[in-house]
Structures are given as C-alpha cells and as structure tokens.
Amino acid sequence: MKRIGVLTGGGDCPGLNGAIRAVVRSAIGGMGWEVVGFRNGWRGVMDRDVLELSTESVRGILHRGGTILGSSGANPYHEGGIDRVRATLHDLDVDGVIAIGGEGTLGAAAQLTEDEIPVIGIPKTIDNDLSGTDYCIGFHTAVQIATDAIDRLHSTAESHNRVMLVEVMGRSAGWIALYAGTAGGGDAILIPEKPFDLEDVTAHLRRRHSRGRSFSIVVVAEGAVPKPGTLTLPEYPVDERGFPRFGGICAVLAPEIEQMTGFETRVTVLGHVQRGGTPVANDRILATRFGIAAVDTAARGEWGTMVAATGNEITTVPLKEAIAEVRRVPEALYRMAEVFFG
Ligand code: F6P
C-alpha cells in the first residue's frame, strides 16, 4: 500500500480543487492507496499540518474556487526546513508528494528532487508561464473573467467616447492580456514581452479615432514595460517570496494617454477577481486530467517530474525544465492579435 501527500502552494486559482479531487479519487479508488493533504503548501509539510483525505472529503468541490487545503508561498529552502520535510514524510509514512503549484512551489519541488525527496508537480498559475506545458490550471478561467470584463467595458466606453485601460494579471508574461485582449476585441495590448512606447500607442489611438472610432479598449498586463528611456514606472514593492508586487501601471498610463490624445481615459484593474470563483469547464477538465496523470506518474515511480499539457496530450517533463525559465508569449501570437488593433 502506497501513501501519498498532496498540497497546493503559491497564489490560488480556480481549478485547484478539481486537481485535489482527481488525485484523491484516482489514488484511493484506482490504486488502493491512502492520501494525506498538507495544509498551506510546503508550510504544512514542514509543520506537519495534515488531514487524511477520503473520497468523501473531496465530494462537491469540483466547481468550487480556491483550495480546500489552503495555500502559502512557504519554501523549505528559505527557512532551513528540509530536515523537517524529510522527518514529516518519514514519520507519516508518506512515499511521495504531489505538489500543485507555480514557479515558487515547483521551484522548491525541483530542489527537493535533487535532495532525493520524491515529488511530482502539477502546474497551476493563471499567468500560464511555466515552461514545458502549454497550459496551467487557472489560466482559462482568468481569461474568461477578463474577456467578460472587456465585453462589458465596450458598451460604457462607447457611450462616453472614452479610452478604457484594462489592467490584467501577468507578471512576466502577457498570456492573459493576449488571450483576453484577442477574445474581447481589444484595440491595443501591452505585454511584458513587447516593451511599449507611449508615443506609438497614443498615435495608434488617435489614428483609430480619426477614422471614426469613438472609443478604444487597451488591455495592459500588470508587468508590461515601457521601452527604455520613454517612461519611468514607480518601483514595485517586493513580496515575501521575492516577487515584485505588481498593480497600478494603468494609473500611471491613464493621465499620460489623456494628455497626449485629449481623449477621456478610465482605468479598470481586475486584480484578484481573475483568481476567484468558479473554474470554467476547461480548467476542471485540465485539473482532472493532471490529477489522474500525476497519480499514474507516481505509480510508475517517475518522481522529479511535472505533468504537462502538450497539444491534446498529457505528458511529463522534468521539474527542473519546467521552472528553468518563464514561458513567454511568442512573437507570432502577438502578430495575430495586432491584426485587429486598427
Ligand atoms: O502568479 C500569479 C499571480 O496571480 C500574478 O499574476 C500576480 O502578480 C500575483 O500572483 C499576485 O500575487 P498575490 O496573491 O501574492 O498578490
């Protein structure tokens, strides 16, 4: 009989509960194993904060946002916690851990693998920027929420002849901005991969309005960056995990745009709304497939890997590869979006 642990770490997102449910159902029902849940990511492993999970305990959670296990950005390597991780797994007789997380949580998982602690990763982040997988849990829901917001902003933008700036999440990669901007018919999209010059953006808006358009929607990733020497953004504070705490770029851009174009400009910051609530069907399916694949991968003894979406298949990649670099929006995809900027 195997006994595995499961945890959710880092920023939450819709779909985590679907992955927990799939791990528990396939481990218990399919393999005859036992499953323990660690509370609040790696914190629960270090502090031995656990709960036994049963088929019963994961009933009715598939459609629920957040995570029944709680989450945190705790990293055993930041607080000398490796021995505590080892001791917990040994004392609770846990053969390995399935860690559902993004770059921080899976970064720790990759290091634990080097230290011969058995971990399998499941990728989640609404930013969708982990390498080795086409999609991460949470992304599709965030895109849908942002698209719905852009749809709604269209009518009010049009009524008032305004420029609407919509700020979406995306620290180092502009996947949400690109997808939601394309799906929602954004008139310009600013992402970290394509440093922008406000002169070009405003010239584009003026051109658009001179051709008879009375409003514009500009979708801005929170991590978008101006071309060097064109505009200075305020320094972002850094969070406890060492990541910049973004938010607020549109508040800087709006008065500049208003002044350079003469068009009244308003800002909507979607923030954590993009991470809350019910997961869309695509995230439920992805989470379910990932959870089952992670248990199968554990059964094959392929620790040190992350399950991944490759086209329509679920595959595995070494954890080290998944966190090696940020997966950015390719140029070709941005060019596709640009076709509709006119
Ligand atoms: O990485 C996911 C993400 O949602 C980013 O898009 C965002 O910048 C960050 O997390 C926000 O983190 P927190 O929940 O710590 O504010």
In short:
With 342 residues, the protein is of the alpha/beta class. The protein is built from 11 helices and 11 strands.
Structure in words:
α1 packs parallel to α9 (281-299), α5 packs across α6 (175-183) and α7 crosses α8. This protein is α/β, with parallel strands linked by helices and 342 residues long. A hairpin with a 2-residue loop joins β10 and β11. The chain starts with a strand and ends with a helix. The protein contains eleven helices and eleven strands. The chain folds into two domains: 3-138 and 279-322, Rossmann fold; 140-275, 3-Layer(aba) Sandwich (Rossmann fold). The protein is elongated and about 70 Å long. The strands form two sheets. It has a seven-stranded mixed beta sheet with strand order 3-2-1-4-5-10-11, with helices on both faces. It has a four-stranded parallel beta sheet with strand order 7-8-6-9, sandwiched between helices. It binds 6-O-phosphono-beta-D-fructofuranose (F6P).
| Major beta sheet, strand line-up | 3-2-1-4-5-10-11
User: Which blocks of ≥5 consecutive residues have pLDDT under 50?
Assistant: none
Major sheet: 7 strands, mixed
Q: Cα-atom Rg, whole angstroms? A: 22 Å
Specify the CATH architecture of the largest domain.
Answer: 3-Layer(aba) Sandwich
Percent of residues in β-strands: 15-25%
Structural class: alpha/beta
Order of helices and strands: EHEHEHEHEHEHEHEHEHEEHH
- How far is the first residue's CA from the last residue's CA? 61 Å
Bound molecules: 6-O-phosphono-beta-D-fructofuranose
Average pLDDT rating: 97
Count of separate structural domains = 2
**Number of DSSP E strands:** 11
